[in-house]
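Q: Hi! First time doing this. I have a protein sequence and I read that you can turn it into a structure. Is that right? Here it is:
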Amino acid sequence: MAEQVMSLRGRLLVASPGMQDPNFRETVIVMAHHDREGAMGLVVNRPHPTLTVARLLADLDLAVQEEARTALEVPVFYGGPVEPARGFVLHESSQSFAATMPITEELAITASRDALEAMAKHPLPRFLVAVGYAGWAPMQLENELKEDAWIIAPLDLGLVFELPPAKRWHAALASVGVDPAGWMREGGHA
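A: Yes, that's right. Below is the predicted 3D structure, encoded as structure tokens:
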């Protein structure tokens, strides 16, 4: 009998204070997909130090309307180490594009150029653009959860879209009552 997988789609996956992997240390991930075939999400608290959405659109030869420029002068995020040249737009579900996949009733993810083309003219009210994603093979994430590498937290759109990126990890931990200063792993873990 196959092991049952509880889907984490639409939840936040928060790196535990003991996370040592530099790709994920102190990260917050919006889980976009999770089933027995694997899992996928976007890191939402690692802004690129120099790349903005406006610059990314210009690099893709998409003309940014002048009235849209200010809203697009926000950082592109490092979504994860898998396929770092692939882009994603995390946005509210009120908009839909060619490759939009709903995450929850309120949140969706899009990986198609038409979303960026539309944003160059009329930016979405709340959005996050990321390059790359976090991905897990079948049962890999479940094993990492058993090793206390991750903490599951409820999705909070205010945390994802409004809170400064540097505060998201602490806020996500606080939402489930975890204080990083008091974190101790149980014995017996490598």
